[in-house]
């Protein structure tokens, strides 16, 4: 509506008004959803690119709203951050994910997203540790995914948290690598274990010369820094073949599998990878 409403402030205002009403409504529904456990973890396979072996899953939050249907995570995560719900939401999700994953084979790990505001919470490390204790899920099977927005404000505070996670045996991944302004400064300043190459560089890579050069550069950088790499957004066999040629170690994307509910994992584990 905004784009087509040139000069029409009435339209614009109405739209903005409706949007903020929507947000307020979603925010109050979100509180109930967190309390009622209506927000659930889905799991997207992460696969070793050379052997197609399954190594684990990224945990992705899903909310089916009673009247609105699926609310996308980029909408409700932001609202959760603004309304102080992100902490409880995140820990409830992590607890559910760990309970499921504890029943899967030992060698499978899970990768869990922590948003910038969530990362800044004082008790984050203790809360994560508490969930691991309660669920009996091994810290060495958990990776925390953060983006550079979580850390650029203050590398020293970020380093303390990352060190505390690593002291517990948890791994740390830098998510959406290459999309921010300070990706390289982050790598230089903080002890990451893994990079996730943003899907904007991966999808269609076999036809995008710029992406090819960028991804191959990221891979040699990562190998020099002894970082593991996951390519996100592998959608086609061509994407996969190209990344195989570059010897990228791990991959994730619709070509392998979409994010699926926990109930489908046991079935997934029986199929060939
Ligand atoms: P992200 O961490 O970069 O997650 C990857 C997103 O890419 C997911 O979107 C996933 O469904 C999507 N994706 C995976 N493979 C493909 C592919 O081949 N093609 C395309 N086009 N997309 C693919 P989703 O689940 O909608 O999540 C969006 C963002 O919301 C996530 O981006 C993450 O930043 C945030 N998010 C999701 N779940 C959580 C959560 O539990 N906690 C926090 N803090 N953030 C979350
Ligand atoms: Ca992620
Ligand atoms: Ca990502
Ligand atoms: Ca993202």
TrEMBL record:
The keyword Transcription does not apply. Residues 23-273 form the EAL domain. Keywords: Membrane, Transmembrane, Transmembrane helix. The keyword RNA-binding does not apply. This is Diguanylate cyclase (GGDEF)-like protein. The chain holds residues 245 to 517 of 532 of the full protein.
């Amino acid at each position: 509506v905004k784009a087509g409403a040139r000069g029409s402030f009435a339209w614009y205002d109405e739209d903005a008004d409706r949007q903020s009403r929507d947000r307020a409504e979603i925010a109050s529904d979100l509180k109930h959803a967190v309390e009622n456990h209506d927000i659930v973890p889905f799991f997207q396979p992460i696969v070793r690119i050379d052997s197609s072996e399954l190594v684990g899953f990224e945990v992705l939050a899903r909310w089916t709203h009673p009247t609105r249907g699926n609310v996308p995570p980029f909408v409700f995560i932001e609202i959760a951050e603004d309304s102080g719900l992100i902490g409880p939401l995140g820990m409830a999700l992590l607890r559910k994910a760990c309970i499921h994953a504890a029943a899967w084979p030992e060698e499978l790990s899970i990768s869990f997203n922590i948003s910038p505001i969530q990362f800044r919470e004082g008790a984050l490390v203790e809360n994560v540790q508490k969930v691991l204790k309660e669920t009996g899920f091994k810290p060495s099977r958990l990776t925390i995914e953060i983006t550079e927005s979580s850390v650029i404000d203050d590398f020293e505070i970020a380093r303390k948290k990352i060190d505390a996670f690593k002291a517990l045996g948890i791994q740390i991944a830098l998510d959406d690598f290459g999309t921010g302004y300070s990706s390289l400064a982050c790598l230089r300043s903080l002890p990451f274990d893994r990079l996730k190459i943003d899907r904007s560089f991966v999808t269609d890579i076999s036809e995008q010369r710029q992406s090819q050069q960028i991804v191959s550069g990221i891979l040699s950088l990562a190998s020099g820094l002894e970082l593991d790499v996951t390519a996100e957004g592998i959608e086609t066999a061509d994407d996969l073949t190209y990344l195989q040629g570059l010897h990228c170690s791990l991959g994730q994307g619709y070509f392998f599998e979409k994010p699926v509910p926990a109930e489908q994992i046991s079935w997934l584990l029986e199929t060939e990878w």
